[in-house]
Amino acid sequence: MNTSSRSLVLPAALPLDGGGVLPRVEIAYETYGTLAEDGSNAILLCHALTGDQYVASAHPLTGKPGWWERMVGPGKPIDTDRFHVICANVIGSCMGSTGPASLADDGQPYAMRFPVITIRDMVRAHVGLLDALGVERLHAVVGGSMGGMQALSLAANWPERAERVLVVASTSRHSAQNIGFHELGRQAIMADPRWQGGDYYAGETPDNGLAVARMAAHITYLSEEALTAKFGRNLQDREAKTFGFEADFQVESYLRYQGSGFTQRFDANSYLYITRAMDYFDLAEEHGGRLADAFANSAARFCLVSFDSDWLYPTAESRHVVHALNAAGAPVSFVELSAPHGHDSFLLDVPALDRVVEGFLK
C-alpha cells in the first residue's frame, strides 16, 4: 500500500468560530493509495476523540496497528487500490497538528492560552488542507464518533466538497449525559496537582488525572453485555479477595491498563480542548435551530450507521439526523447493526459494517 506521512503549514491564518485566529496552523496527515489525475477518488477520513492520522499504519509511539487497519487498505472496504485516503490529525490534538503543546509566537507552549476550538474549526482546517493538496471535491467523507461529527459539519458548511457522506456511530449534538461524562474527565485532569493550570510541559505531566479521564470515558465506549462477557465479576486471584483498594476485579485491572497506556500517547490539555469542542457541537443551533436547514444546500448522498448496543450515541441520535435529511430532501440510507461491543463496535470486527461501507463507497 502506498502510504505517506506528512505535515503541512496552511498558507494563511485560520479564523475560528470563537472570533479569534490561529496565526500559524500545521496539519499532520497521512495518505494511503494514489490520487487520480482528476482527483475524483479522494476520501477524507476523520478520526475520533483520541484517534489520530495513523488510521492504517503503525502508531509511532505505541507501535500498535492503525486504529482502522481492518477497514482501510488494498482490497479492504475502503480500498486503497481504488481510493486515495487522507486522514489528518485535528487541530487541538497532539500528534503533529497545532494544539496546546505547540509553540506560540513567544516560543513557549500555548498550554491554556490555546484558543477554544469547535468541530467546525477542525473541519475548516481540514478544508484548508484539501485546498493545499489540490483536492476540490471528495469522493466521500467518512467518520465515526467525533469523526462523524466532522463529516456532518463538512456536509453542512461546505456542501460542495463531498459527493458522499458516511457517518458511523455519531450524533448531531451532545446530550447532557455526554457533556457530564466529559466534565468528569476534565475535572479529573484539572484536579491532578501536576496539571498546574496547564503549564506542565517543562516538568511532570498530569498522568493520574488523564488516566482517570480515560477510564471514565472508556466505560462509555463499551456495553454492559461486552463487559459482562469479558470480565463479569471475575477476580484477579480466584482464591482470595484483598478487601482493599487494589485491583481485585479483572475489570478494574483492565480499566487501569487502558488509563495508563493512554497517558503514553495523549496530551492532557488536548483532551480538555477536544472534549469541549465535542460538547459545543450542535449542528442545528449553528443553522438557526432547525437541523434540516443545515443540509438545505447539500447535494451529497448520505449513509448513517448505528449499533444497537451503543448507549453513548444510541440509534435515536442517528434517526434524528436521518429525519432531518429526509426533511431537507437529501438522499439518505440508514442501518442499525447488531453488535455486542457498544460504541466501540465501529472499530471492531463487525462484518456487516464492512459490507455497508464497501457498498456505499462503490
| Gross geometry | globular
Largest sheet report: 8 strands, mixed
Helix content: 25-40%
Across the major sheet, the strand order is: 1-4-8-5-9-10-11-12
- SSE order, one letter for each helix or strand: EEEEEEEEHEHEHHHHHHHEHEH
Mean pLDDT: 94
What is the CA-atom radius of gyration, in angstroms? 20 Å
Top CATH class of the largest domain: Alpha Beta
The CATH topology of the largest domain turns out to be Rossmann fold
Strand elements, count: 12
Treating each run of at least 4 consecutive H or I residues as one helix, how many helices?
11
- β-strand percent reads 15-25%
| Low-pLDDT residue spans | none
CATH architecture of the largest domain: 3-Layer(aba) Sandwich
N→C terminal distance? 19 Å
Your description of this structure?
Its main location: cytoplasm. Pathway: Amino-acid biosynthesis; L-methionine biosynthesis via de novo pathway; O-acetyl-L-homoserine from L-homoserine: step 1/1. Belongs to the AB hydrolase superfamily. MetX family. Residues 41-301 form the AB hydrolase-1 domain. It is an enzyme of class 2 (transferase). The chain has 362 residues and is α/β, with parallel strands linked by helices. The protein has two domains: 3-175 and 282-361, 3-Layer(aba) Sandwich (Rossmann fold); 178-274, Rna Polymerase Sigma Factor, Chain: A (Orthogonal Bundle), CATH 1.10.1740.110. The protein has helices at 119-133, 146-157, 176-191, 207-221, 224-230, 250-262, 268-280, 283-286, 291-294, 315-327, 351-361; strands at 3-9, 14-15, 21-22, 26-32, 42-46, 72-73, 78-79, 84-88, 140-144, 164-168, 301-307, 332-337. The strands form three sheets. The protein has an eight-stranded mixed sheet, sandwiched between helices. The protein has a two-stranded antiparallel sheet with strand order 2-3. A two-stranded parallel ribbon has the order 6-7. Strand 9 (140-144), helix 2 (146-157) and strand 10 (164-168) form a beta-alpha-beta unit. Helix 1 (119-133) packs across helix 2 (146-157), helix 3 packs antiparallel against helix 4 (207-221) and helix 3 runs antiparallel to helix 7 (268-280). The radius of gyration is 20 Å and the shape is globular.
